[in-house]
């Protein structure tokens, strides 16, 4: 990947212009600019294996907040993302089912969450090519913690548009660009 991007940057002669663009947005711009020149692009068939090396909930949360900030700035429609999360979607659909079919909202909520939980587990097994290396109880606890953090993560991402990355602080701009915040 680095060799590929390096060749493209050398080819374009625009290193200084492209250095403030975030990676996802940069790849989209490469596809547009170099696609017009006849270059071919394709997606990988394998999922990206990301091992952060640290497994604390606080670091997971800060990474998810950073990614949410990036998504919100690169794709403003992301503001609607929380309604596609398990608990919020279950409440909204349960409320609708109660009004339309007169079903009990809590029974619907619990059944919908259970179906979502099972679907996530089946998908995890499919991606990993077999049973995971942890127990089903560990999975259930981790799944519940992750699903219950989504609204807090999203609101934290909206509240503060700056990103702390390694040793620097950056302010995100619309369109996938970032600029470093220098301390005075």
UniProtKB/TrEMBL annotation:
GO cellular component terms attached to this protein's record: membrane
Compartments reported by the entry: Membrane
UniProt GO molecular function: ceramide glucosyltransferase activity
Membrane topology designation: Multi-pass membrane protein
InterPro entries for this protein: Ceramide_glucosylTrfase
Keywords, alphabetical: Glycosyltransferase, Membrane, Transferase, Transmembrane, Transmembrane helix
GO biological process annotation, one example: glucosylceramide biosynthetic process
Main location group: membrane
PANTHER family named among the record's database cross-references: CERAMIDE GLUCOSYLTRANSFERASE (PTHR12726:SF0)
Protein name: Ceramide glucosyltransferase
């Amino acid at each position: 990947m680095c060799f590929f991007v390096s060749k493209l940057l050398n080819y374009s002669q625009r290193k200084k212009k492209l250095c403030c663009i975030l990676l996802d947005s940069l790849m989209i711009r490469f596809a547009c600019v170099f696609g017009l020149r006849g270059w071919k692009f394709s997606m990988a068939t394998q999922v990206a294996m990301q091992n952060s090396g640290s497994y604390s909930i606080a670091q997971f949360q800060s990474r998810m907040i950073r990614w949410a900030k990036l998504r919100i700035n690169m794709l403003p429609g992301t503001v609607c993302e929380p309604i596609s999360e398990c608990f919020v979607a279950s409440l909204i659909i349960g409320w609708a089912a109660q009004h339309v079919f007169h079903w009990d909202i809590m029974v619907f909520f619990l059944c919908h969450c259970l179906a979502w939980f099972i679907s996530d587990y089946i998908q995890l097994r499919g991606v990993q090519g077999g049973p995971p290396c942890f127990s089903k109880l560990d999975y259930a606890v981790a799944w519940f913690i992750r699903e219950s953090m989504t609204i807090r993560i999203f609101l934290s991402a909206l509240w503060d548009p700056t990103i702390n990355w390694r040793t620097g602080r950056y302010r995100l701009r619309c369109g996938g660009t970032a600029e470093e915040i220098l301390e005075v």
